[in-house]
Structures are given as structure tokens and as C-alpha cells.
Design a protein that fits this description.
The structure holds 2 protein chains of 2 kinds. By secondary structure, chain A is an alpha+beta fold. Chain A has helices spanning 3-20, 78-88, 105-108, 128-140, 142-156, 175-190, 197-208, 250-257, 274-285, 291-317, 324-328, 333-343; strands at 25-35, 42-52, 55-65, 98-102, 112-116, 217-219, 228-231, 234-238, 245-247. In chain A, the strands form 3 sheets. In chain A, strands 1-2-3-5-4 form a 5-stranded antiparallel beta sheet, with helices on both faces. In chain A, a hairpin with a 6-residue loop joins strand 1 and strand 2 (42-52). In chain A, helix 8 (250-257) crosses helix 10 (291-317). Chain A is globular. Chain B has helices at residues 3-21, 25-71, 77-89, 92-104, 106-109, 111-136. Chain B is built from 6 helices and no strands. Chain B has one domain. The two termini of chain B are 22 Å apart. Chain B is an all-alpha fold. Chain B is elongated, with a radius of gyration of 22 Å. Classes of the chains: A alpha+beta, B mainly alpha. The A-B interface holds A 1-3, 36, 194-198, 200-201, 204-205, 207-208, 323-325, 327-328, 331, 334-335, 337-338, 341, 344-346 and B 24-27, 29-30, 33-34, 36-37, 40, 92-93, 95-96, 99-100, 103, 106, 118-119, 121-123, 125-126, 129-130, 132-133, 135-136.
């Protein structure tokens, strides 16, 4: 979406909000910006000002729209994201408050949701500035502790009382791992990319070695710096509710431990010392980190990464997207396959 | 000028001439991405002949070794058929089918033969992925 696209969209957003706030007068949008986060949905931030009952109001909003052709399109529904945020409102986990979900594509050409714009920033851990930000925060120590404490809150919240069981409750045993394998296998199938023998080997290995687990918690699915909003040196909100499931919390722990999420540093997610993470996470959750399960899930993340990149490059190759960033990911596939080969011992 | 050199030149033009002249962030990123992709395609074109020959040689060696391993003991018919499938098709899909058949026949093959057969396939896949990384780099 270009700058012109944002300009054209702003009056339509305003019209929608006017309908949602019937008592509001003199509505105006300020500081409208499309932010470049993720490849699965388009995201805009803006402030709305209006007068109501003789008083002036100002509130920040975040709008996410489903472009219909992006990464994870058929695995990540905005309706589900909205429902998850509604459920999380009743829990201690910091997350944006959901305001409205609109499924009618006539309003903004595609379904979208509107949620609270929370204070804070979300530096990308992949850029030089972001790495410097997290390195400095690591030295201060407050943000790393908040990172671990927030994950512990996520894993100890009462998901059943919050109504999150609509996500699907895995049966005890290997059901959780098998569900994840099936999900990413489906994404690979719809990507229409050529078959990859190393990936076939990895999937067969994952199926043959699925760990049994009777631990069931809410699992974010992508808990790392870059998906967490930071304010006053603490995590102010957990973002990117696209991959969440109910299942083994070690799936999130494995993601934190994974070298997929750090560059040129031993700090987990570019932020947390490994020893401190183990100590604080186990103390806060009462869970013992299962290293064998984490190693398995790390291999599962390799499969997921391959599925992401095959899907992304497939979107471009089949003409469903014109975004050359997606075409570029075709060369990320062999990098991930090489990681799989190493994990399988060759 | 070879096709690979031509692609590298175009990539350089996109990166140093076209990209910097674009103000809007999205098309600027697209120009840069186009340059990166053309560079990678150029590298692939450059190495394509050598890599194709190496793949063929490796596949012949793999088939020889697998047939030798199969002769060493009683083998499920599905595994033998999958190996001959690779010999006929000589492609990734046939290799995938062989890997799936090995896992499906693991109990019948026994751990040692399974490891030997899959290990030999993996040796070929390792060489292949190293070549692809060389191109992708």
C-alpha cells in the first residue's frame, strides 16, 4: 500500500468510526501512519479527536486489515484475533483492548479490526538500531525480567475461564505436536512450491518423534522481541496474535531459547541471559523447562520457517502478490533446509 | 557479456541508480529487492551447469550404493520400488517418496538398515543443499 493508499483510506476510516461513535461530533484523524510490521496484515496507527457532551476527546487506535493475499492468509483470521483479544481483556496479560471487528468488505475493501493503540515502541531486533536498543536494555536488567515475567503470565493465565478453549484443546499425548505438524504441512501443500526432500525427511522425523505432553496453556506461538510492545523499560503489551494455540508451553519456551531469534549474541531474543530466563521462568510458573521437548519444538520451528518461506515465495510465484519481498524469500528456503539438515545430524 | 553478467549489471543499476532516485518507501524497497533477486539469479545461472553435473553424478553414486545396501538383506518391496522410482524419475519428488517409504518401512528394515539407507540418502542431500547455499549466497 502506498502513501496515496493511506490518504484514500483515511476518510473511509473516519466514516466508519463516526458510525461507531454516534454521540461524537467534529471527528478528525491525526497522525495516520501505516506501519511496516509483519507480512500477514496491513496495520495503521492513528489518533481520533472528537467532541462529545461539550468535551474534547482524543484516543489512539490501531487498525489491522486483511489484505486477502498475504502470508498465513488461511491460518490467521482477524475474527479469531479479535476474539482472542476479547478473551485476554479478562486476564492479567497486557494486550491491546479490542474495539470493533468488521467483516463486511464493503467498508474498507476487506475485513478489519480496530483496537487500542497502546503507548510504547516495538524495535525490530533484526536492525542495528534495534539490536543496540535491546543490548542496552539487557544491561539495565528491567526489560529482560519483564520479558520473562510476561511469558510466565501468559503460561499461567486461566485460559478456560477466559474463554480461549475455542482455539481447540489438544488431547493428552502427542496430539499437540501432531496438530502443529498438520497445520504447517497444509501451508506447505498450498504453497505450490516444488517438493523438498530434506523437508520430507524433517517432517517424517517430527512425526516419528512427537513428544507426549499433558501440559496445556495458552501458547503465543511467536513470543520474541519485535512482537512485544515496550514502555518505560517494561513489556506494555503482547502483540501479533496470529499463531496462538492451546498446547505445550515448552513450544513458546523453545522459541525463546532458539537461535532463530537472536543475532550475534548469546542473549535470548537479543535480550535475556539464558540462566536468568531459566531461573525466573521456572520460579514464576512452577514448570520445569523440558530441554528435550524444546529441542524437538526447535526442529518443528524449522519446519514452520520452511513453510513460511515456501508460502511467501509461492504467493509471488503464483501471481497472488506483487510484493518482491515475498519473491526474495525463495532464497530463504535453502537456508532453513540447511538448518533442518544440521538438526537431523547431516 | 554472459546472461549472469548482464543480470549483475541490471542489479547494480537498480541498486545504485533507480533505488536512490525513488522517494516513496515501498517502491524504493521493491527496487532494492529486485536488485537482490537479480544478483541471486545471476549467481545461480553462473553455477547452474556445474551444479547440474554434480547432482547427476551424486545421484548415480546414490543409486549404486542404495542398490548395494538393498542386496545385503531382505528388503520390503516398497523400498526397492521407491529406489527404482528415483532411478527412473531422477527428481526431488521421487527422492521424497523414497524417504517417506524408508520411514514407513522402518520396523521391517530394522534400525541398522534404516539408518544405513537413510544415512546414504542424507549424504546426497547434504551435498545438494551445500550447492544450493552456494547459489543462494
Amino acid at each position: 500500500m502506498t502513501a496515496e493508499g493511506t490518504e484514500a483510506l483515511a476518510p473511509r476510516i473516519l466514516e466508519y468510526l463516526a458510525g461507531r461513535l454516534p454521540g461524537a461530533r467534529e471527528l478528525a484523524l491525526e497522525d495516520v501512519q501505516r506501519i511496516a510490521v509483519g507480512w500477514s496484515h496491513e496495520t495503521w496507527l492513528f489518533d481520533l479527536t472528537w467532541r462529545e457532551g461539550g468535551a474534547a476527546h482524543r484516543r489512539g487506535f490501531c487498525l489491522r486489515r486483511d489484505p486477502g493475499n498475504a502470508l498465513l492468509r488461511h491460518l490467521s483470521s482477524l475474527a479469531d484475533q479479535f476474539r482472542v483479544l476479547q478473551c485476554l481483556e479478562k486476564t492479567p496479560l497486557p494486550a491491546p483492548a479490542p474495539y470493533w471487528f468488521e467483516s463486511d468488505p464493503a467498508v474498507l475493501d476487506a475485513p478489519f479490526l480496530v483496537m487500542e493503540k497502546m503507548p510504547g515502541r516495538c524495535p525490530s531486533p533484526w536492525g542495528r538500531d534495534g539490536r543496540a536498543f535491546y543490548a542496552a536494555a539487557a544491561k539495565r536488567g528491567t526489560l529482560p525480567a519483564s520479558f520473562t515475567a510476561t511469558l510466565a503470565t501468559l503460561h499461567t493465565l486461566d485460559w478456560r475461564a477466559a474463554g480461549l478453549d475455542f482455539l481447540g484443546v489438544p488431547a493428552p499425548g502427542t496430539d499437540f505436536a501432531r496438530r502443529e505438524i498438520a497445520k504447517w504441512r497444509e501451508l506447505i501443500a498450498v504453497s505450490e512450491r516444488p517438493p523438498e526432500p530434506i523437508l520430507t525427511d524433517l517432517i517424517a522425523w517430527l512425526e516419528a518423534n512427537a513428544p507426549a505432553s499433558d501440559r496445556v496453556t495458552l501458547v503465543h506461538g511467536a513470543y520474541r522481541t519485535g512482537n512485544l510492545l515496550i514502555h518505560d523499560d517494561r513489556i506494555s503489551a503482547v502483540l501479533d496474535w496470529e499463531l496462538q494455540v492451546l498446547g505445550d508451553p515448552m513450544y513458546d519456551v523453545a522459541y525463546v531459547l532458539s537461535d532463530l531469534n537472536r543475532e550475534d549474541t548469546p542473549l535470548l531474543s537479543n535480550l535475556v541471559e539464558r540462566e536468568a530466563f531459566y531461573r525466573d521462568y521456572e520460579a514464576a510458573t512452577g514448570l520445569t523447562i523440558d530441554e528435550e521437548a524444546c529441542r524437538y519444538y526447535d526442529a518443528l520451528y524449522t519446519m514452520r520457517s520452511a513453510a513460511f518461506w515456501m508460502s511467501a515465495s509461492g504467493l509471488y510465484a503464483t501471481g497472488r502478490s506483487d510484493d518482491l519481498r515475498l519473491a526474495r524469500t525463495a532464497w530463504s528456503v535453502p537456508v532453513v533446509l540447511e538448518r533442518a539438515a544440521r538438526e537431523l545430524g547431516y | 557479456m554472459t546472461h549472469a553478467e548482464l543480470l549483475r549489471r541490471i542489479a547494480q543499476t537498480l541498486k545504485q541508480g533507480v533505488g536512490p532516485a525513488i522517494e516513496a518507501e515501498y517502491p524504493k524497497t521493491q527496487a532494492f529487492m529486485a536488485a537482490v533477486i537479480l544478483q541471486k539469479l545471476g549467481r545461480e545461472l553462473e553455477l547452474e551447469g556445474a551444479h547440474r553435473a554434480a547432482e547427476a553424478t551424486d545421484l548415480d553414486a546414490l543409486l549404486d550404493d542404495l542398490r548395494g545396501l538393498l542386496r545385503a538383506g531382505e528388503t520390503p518391496g516398497g523400498v526397492t520400488a521407491a529406489v527404482e522410482g528415483v532411478a527412473r524419475a531422477r527428481d526431488a519428488a521421487a527422492l521424497c517418496a523414497l524417504i517417506e517409504m524408508l520411514y514407513a518401512s522402518r520396523a521391517e528394515l530394522g534400525a541398522a538398515r534404516f539408518d544405513a539407507l537413510l544415512g546414504r540418502v542424507r549424504q546426497t542431500l547434504r551435498a545438494s543443499i551445500d550447492r544450493r547455499l552456494d547459489s543462494a549466497g
